[in-house]
Amino acid sequence: MLFTSIEYFLFLPTVFILYWFVFSNSLRLQNLLILSASYFFYGWWDWRFLSLIIFSSTVDYVIGLKIENANTQVKRKIFLFISIFTNIGLLASFKYFNFFIESFADLFSSIGIDLNVTSLNIILPIGISFYTFQSLSYSIDIYNKRIKPRTDIVAFFSFVSFFPQLVAGPIERAKNLLPQFETKRIFNYELARDGLRQILWGLFKKIVIADTCAIQADYIFENHESLSGSILLLGAIYFAFQIYCDFSAYSDIAIGTARLFGFNLMRNFALPYFSRDIAEFWRRWHISLSTWFRDYVYIPLGGSHSNKVLHIRNLMMTFTISGFWHGANWNFIFWGFLNSLYYIPLIFRNKQKDYKDIVALGKAFPSLVETYQILSTFLLILFAWVFFRSTDIHHAFLYLKNLFSNNFFYVPKVDYVAVLLILFLLVSEWVQRDKMHVLQIDKLPIILRWSIYFVLTIIILLFIKHTKTFIYFQF
């Protein structure tokens, strides 16, 4: 079920009414409703894959108790390995089986040996990369004694399958989200109101900005061989804002929806295109996944607590694995590897933790130095996005080759609607960069606030017929 579908706009108020007006006196019934609604939400896409969520949840629920009750460290490690093997094995079977088979065949083909291998026609279960990581982190945190295992199976299953963030995050930690299922929730008008505003802003970013940019980006990437370098640069820019608005919009809608039910989810995007270096970008982009890889891959490898060579190795391995998580294709692996290369100069200069504040806070405009830093960082990200968007690594290199062609300085024909929407986004986010989202506008007069809500709603309705599925559903 899509956040932008009619079915969802019937589903959400139905669950909301039952949650607050029918089951509000019973925490367990509220959790049962959340669990049932989450399974209905997911099963609307394909009910057969509900078994995977239930299986993953069951394994980690049992493993968590086994780890806690194990009387030796060896047994604890065995149970943790079962959880890791089950979750990663489940993910690998559906997402990476064909990749490994085809890569294995290509390797032998390169030395003259033709293997007659057959790939499987496997449907990738939507959201599997997200809920397996969320469930797996629970077992790891119990093993590391960060949290205690839960005996309330309804609360735990609801945590794994919570419908607002089930399909594309944020990837929540048990330490943050599970206690919210165990605590009585009281309706908070201010929290719900802010949730609705964040949902509205998310819908605007997705339906109006992301999907408008998608039309241009799709055309340019599909016809790159016949277009000028300047248009290909524009295509990369369109995609940069498509993926940002698309993915951050999903997070906005998820966070806003959770607030309607009294839950607080972590922030997943914090104005990443205003970053002053690549390290700041990755502290602001897909925060829940970046911190997941930091805590469960990068730090266990040794993190930065080693010499620079090992530090770089740990970083490169983490980014490369992150790229592979995004898709079973070499272009995603190279995209991750490329981002790790961007990071290396910061490590040698000990600059990877320089920018943790909000850029130009309290000022109308950034300084010349900050402007240069923001633009140069954006160009690096833009170059990397070409690999992310391309169908394969060969497509990416051809795109870049044509981008730097002789007619690079040809003045391209632009989609002025898309350009104006991008400019509107940048101005809005710059003005509101100290807020959690753009529509935190409580200080404005009530007439102006409602005028803004009304105009955004009308624009969404005008653009909704062209809406596309969310990009991260494919991951």
Descriptive account of the structure:
67% of the residues lie in helices and 0% in strands. The chain is mostly helical. The chain folds into two domains: 6-186, no CATH class; 191-276 and 355-474, no CATH class. The two termini are 16 Å apart.
Tell me the layout of helices and strands:
Elements: H1 6-22, H2 27-46, H3 50-69, H4 73-95, H5 97-109, H6 128-143, H7 153-161, H8 174-181, H9 189-222, H10 229-260, H11 278-284, H12 287-301, H13 308-326, H14 330-348, H15 368-389, H16 393-403, H17 416-431, H18 446-463
Helix pairs in contact: 1-2, 2-7, 3-4, 3-6, 3-7, 4-6, 7-8, 9-10, 9-17, 9-18, 10-15, 10-16, 12-13, 13-14, 14-15, 15-16
Helix/strand order:
HHHHHHHHHHHHHHHHHH
Structural class: mainly alpha
Percent strand equals: under 5%
Give the overall shape: globular
Distance between the termini: 16 Å
Largest sheet: none
Radius of gyration: 23 Å
Task: State the domain count.
Answer: 2
Helix content: 55-70%
Q: Please give the number of β-strands.
A: 0
Mean pLDDT: 89
Uncertain runs: none
Number of helices: 18
Features:
475 residues; globular
Please sum up the structure shown:
This protein has helices spanning about 5-20, 25-45, 50-70, 75-95, 95-110, 130-145, 155-160, 175-180, 190-220, 230-260, 280-285, 285-300, 310-325, 330-350, 370-390, 395-405, 415-430, 445-465. With about 475 residues, the protein is mostly helical.
